[in-house]
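During the reporting period the student researcher (J.K.) took over the structure-prediction task from the postdoctoral fellow and processed the backlog of single-chain submissions. One of the processed entries is reproduced below for the supervisory committee.
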Amino acid sequence: MDKDHTVALLLTDTTREMVLTPAVEERLAEIAEIRSASGPPETWDMPALLQGATACITGWGTPHLSRPVLAACPDVHPVAHPAGSLRTLFPASPFGG
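J.K. obtained the following structure tokens:
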């Protein structure tokens, strides 16, 4: 089945285990192509992980989504952040201004 959406999972292994059950991951994989970050967050290539993704899931330990990263990935609309504070994730005004 061809999937219309790509979801970037920008979660550390620990956070992923805390917020996503195997059943949820299985269901998500049924409806979207999943692109998962791996290794230490400081080594993640955020633009590459987000390129072409239509949504992303973030959590504790996700690196900052800077203006240049967001600008390079205009297709990413929903950002689901099930764990942690959004204050450190985005610039003060992520979409301009």
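The committee noted the following: The chain has a mean pLDDT of 84.
J.K. will present the remaining backlog at the next meeting.
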